[in-house]
Write a structure and sequence with these properties.
globular, alpha+beta
Length: 146
């Protein structure tokens, strides 16, 4: 029990730090990048405030709306090189969705072994949003329905 707690506590601290960094809201990202945000059209600003994106957005606009992607992949095709940004969801064994690796609804915080729950092999990870860029602009958006 003590060994598990010693291993899980540093993992929990690391997970909390990463989650707090990655879970910034669009409003916090806008405050941090006010100059870039103010140069956008009113329609683009409205979408970003709601955490939404549209075709034609550039990478910085997508980061303002959605944050840093969980994974980036490139694909080379006859039409050119595309870059795919993946924003993932992890479903835990009890069905709790985790966006960007952090609980969408808190549960079980009183349990000292709760951080070890993240390491359970029964969790399933899948894309929540997949954004495809070509020449630095969004050319496709795939969203999974809840």
């Amino acid at each position: 029990m003590k060994t598990t707690t010693k291993v899980c506590f540093p993992l929990a601290a690391l997970a909390a730090a990463v989650a707090l960094w990655g879970c910034a809201t669009p409003a916090a990202r806008i405050r941090a990048n006010q100059a870039a945000f103010s140069q956008l059209s009113e329609e683009q600003q409205a979408l970003i405030r709601k955490g939404q994106i549209a075709l034609g957005f550039d990478k910085e606009m997508v980061k303002l709306a959605l944050g840093e992607p969980d994974r980036i992949r490139t694909r080379t095709e006859p039409q050119g090189v595309t870059e795919i940004w993946r924003y993932t969801v992890v479903d835990m064994p009890d069905g709790t969705p985790l966006y960007g690796g952090w609980p969408h609804r808190p549960r079980g915080w009183e349990d000292p072994l709760y951080p070890c729950y993240y390491a359970w092999p029964q969790r399933r990870e899948h894309d929540h949003i997949r954004v495809t860029f070509r020449a630095g602009r969004v050319v496709a958006i795939e969203e999974n329905s809840p």
